[in-house]
């Protein structure tokens, strides 16, 4: 064979290699980018599924197109090479975004296939009207599609690809979108380990399909402490944001590229690991950020550009119309801003409120219309609670503007400016409102020095150290030692703000009256997903969680004589979970006496040790829960309220226990009353439709006990919702007990139908549940804790 023939033979051998003979990207062990057609997919399935390989918009990159016939296309190779713990991943996008989720247009990534009627996977659909993605864990069983877990995210621009990944480790499932973990679930269906693709109701493009070991975590791109939306105004300096790349907990350094879908609205460049945005003209554009080495690593950022800030020269008679009052001094540094218009104004579509330092006209804070990000905590705090919030609220004629946390300093003078477009259809002091500039004279000076001592006061409009509860918490965390006791007295008022405490013990929040002091906010899982965790400066995205009050690493927090409300309504929420309080301190203690807690789902979540005394907890779905050690509800009212999302369908579940060990008491209700009432939908709970508890995850313990409690007729005769058989810890009778149960009138209750729960013995009660001392005996390695009511006055 001559040299020419040898070279031709070698070239033919190379061209005959399968598509992924080279190393797959993303630590995958099998992959297909469709540059070699459909050779890795059985030909017998191609026609039935309507599969073709096409050039992507003439770009030279090839994609697989399924035309929506609803027939799976399966890969030739099984996933046996990665055994039981593997991931399957693909980029996918609808060929047209004209299909909404309500029409059934779906793209599916199948991770475990048995036959067309039995498989496990993930689905993706787009609701164009709301610009939302629905990304769900699904199972096809006996021809019926079941949703194991549902999640949602904002959609990218039309034509966006989305990287969907599903990890399968035995029965544990984890779903990711663009590297971000969305939901997890368990399913033990014995389906085979073949993977596949499926489109139903619309054509879908697929690319870069991969399989690999689940131990290799996906890569996620995100902006530090920023959600995936950025607001700019013409005339402002370019804004820069740190881009972070993470695989699990490991931070990576990747070569990145960024492209604006409309560079005439906003331009973007990558400089030293940061995205730098420049506003060009008003409008919306989307920035695609991706790894130059791996197309599956990408994210999208929506950029809104508003018209330039307009500083008005109009003057108004502001006396009695603004707070703080014009030229006021000794103003608390946590003050909110208020304007009293002549009639209820309308919030505009854009623009901002700005706070300037009077001495040098330095811009201190920009407060934008719509959703924004706040970093709750004191200046210089290493870990903060980062949340989405809406800083401008309208209540009748009164507008409240919430500056970002810790922006004002002691001993400074400031003035306020309001863009012309922030409030429309409005008049102020008899004049048409055209914005506020420096000429309007809304200025004030803050207190010269921080308060001293360990007794602090909060009042939203009267003489006090602080205007907000968070202002007092920031002061306590920053200026006082961890162990030093601090008393924060709160005057009657409605305090609208998310709250955060970390690293400070022995704090008491005591209200002037139980019903008069209301700490509230709107928050839910759709707004701030997850139970919440603080984050450092170089932490991706927004992780502050869905509660009103998040507590981390704190001991002996006392709440006394006040009300906590999460104003989210299940019927209107994208994510219905909405705690009033998350006590996330595994070894810490929480005391709540004479306190009301109102929400619908997940009202109270506790870790560690907690004592609720003569308090009210109201909710519907798992409204008392957590990975706790011991929580005692003594002489309290546990009120099941009607579900606004499902009126007339049921009374929900009081407890979902996730107690950390079988030896811990878990959730104990002593001498308490289980009642019912109207929820935010003004519907009550029907008789016999509420349950004492339902099973938590099989990796935790269902420790729930009711001792000498009165229960109204809304509690089902069976009491306990029968656990699923796969739960090892929640077998009948394992942790669900009661003793001395009575009806609401104090007569002994018939508990003969209480299965799988059991009746505790007198000895069990006397040795474990009859007092606070017994319930908290294991605290501090057996040293114990025996709290007692404090003087509320």
Name the descriptors.
18-stranded parallel sheet; 4 domains; single chain; Immunoglobulin-like; Jelly Rolls; aspartyl esterase; disordered N terminus; 793 residues; Pectin_lyase_fold/virulence; mainly beta; Pectin_lyas_fold
Summarize the structure.
The protein is mainly β and 793 residues long. It folds into four domains: 25-216, Jelly Rolls (Sandwich); 221-306, Immunoglobulin-like; 322-446, Sandwich (Immunoglobulin-like); 522-532 and 543-782, Single-stranded right-handed beta-helix, Pectin lyase-like (Pectate Lyase C-like), CATH 2.160.20.10. Mean pLDDT is 90; it is low at 1-21, 97-103 and 725-733.
- Strand % is 35-45%
How far is it from the N-terminal to the C-terminal residue, by CA?
102 Å
Radius of gyration of CA atoms, rounded to a whole number? 29 Å
In terms of structural class, how would the helical and strand content be classed?
mainly beta
CATH class of the largest domain: Mainly Beta
Q: Please work out how many helical segments DSSP would assign.
A: 6
Q: Estimate the mean pLDDT confidence.
A: 90
In the CATH hierarchy, the third-tier topology of the largest domain is known as Pectate Lyase C-like
Helix content: under 10%
Full CATH superfamily name of the largest domain: Single-stranded right-handed beta-helix, Pectin lyase-like
Sheet of most strands:
18 strands, parallel
The outline comes out as globular
* Oligomer state of the chains in this structure: single chain
Compute the number of structural domains: 4
* CATH A-level architecture of the largest domain: 3 Solenoid
Record field, number of beta strands:
63
Signal peptide: 1-21
Protein name: Ig-like domain-containing protein
Domain 3-keto-alpha-glucoside-1,2-lyase/3-keto-2-hydroxy-glucal hydratase: 103-211
Organism: Undibacterium hunanense
